[in-house]
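WARN no homologs supplied; continuing
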Amino acid sequence: MNEQEKPDKTRRNLIVATSAVGAVAGLGAAVPFVASMWPSERAKAAGAPIEVDLSLIAPGEIKTFEWRGKPVWVIRRTQEMLASLKAAEGRLSDPASKASEQPKYAENEYRSQKPEIMVMEGVCTHLGCSPQMKPADAKGEMGGDWVGGFYCPCHGSKFDLAGRVFRGAPAPVNLKVPPYEFITDGTLVIGEDKEKKGA
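OK structure emitted
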């Protein structure tokens, strides 16, 4: 074999090395591109279902959770709170929640799957402010016929303990009930709905 027929190892090594660097560079560019099409951790967390341990909520207590950037209230209603729903009915704009947004399983007098557990968005349906819970003993502030519920200090909307709006309030409809389901007797998940899963 003469000199011209001998393979040029230096040249071949250079071609292999260049190809390898090109492949690594191409992969390096592709990874961020593909990753950019996946939702961010923050975006996933914002819409991800939230598990709620009901044993941490005492009777009469309300806890606030964030789901999709909104406050969601979970209330463990007492028998007195449930009785207040009937007492407020005559003063409500939409007592049967016909013009309001809630899942099918919350289309009842309690607006919930289980009477004692209420789940609703803590966002006023007027301009999106966050109402405050006012217990039945806040009559001095809320009026002698107050039986307990929520008051929005921004523009004065009032809601009962099922999130139903009182007549005369600027809020047009009842507070929204988000999708949720019980995965055990003591645990519910906000953001999951077995009705929609089966659809």
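The chain has two domains: 1-38, 44-198.
OK
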